[in-house]
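Researcher: Next entry in the queue.
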Amino acid sequence: MQFFIWILTDIVLGFVPQAAGCAVCLFAIGDKKLLSRGFLYTSAIYAAIAVIVRLAYNTGLIDFGFHTIIIWLIFVVVAIAYNKYPAVQATLSILISGALITISELITCAILMIAIGKDKFEYIMGNEATIEGKIDKAICGIPANFLFLTIVLVMNLILKHRKQKRMLANSQKESTEKTA
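Model: Structure for this entry, 180 residues:
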């Protein structure tokens, strides 16, 4: 039962949405198609990396905070080696993802503190010893992951729209130069 709860709370409600969001950000910056096999593989690889590194943290092999840096570094290596992105682009996408995750979590925490009160919020965030506590904390994380995914999907649409406008402007410029 404990293992099932861990899969639900940490993997399904935590690692998978954040890994997908990081992959969306990578593909948006790299101007690649989202609905592709490469995107799905990248999301799965990112989620697996997050799970493995988090397990290392849970067993005490690495310290809190350091596990996030390790995850991001491995994400960059995967983006460069597997997805064939330039290092600057890969690093930029992970830094943007990290910033957006942090902002999404801060917004969500602020709203939850206002909605349920600071004491109850702190109790939920600090009560992972019980199954109910893990589930409550995971439920509180759902809005942050939803917000993060929404932001990166909107960012993807904006970047695609800008690219189309640039291409249209360039083609119009070329056609007027040819007629002149």
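Model: The CA atoms of residues 90 and 132 lie 38 Å apart.
Researcher: Noted, moving on.
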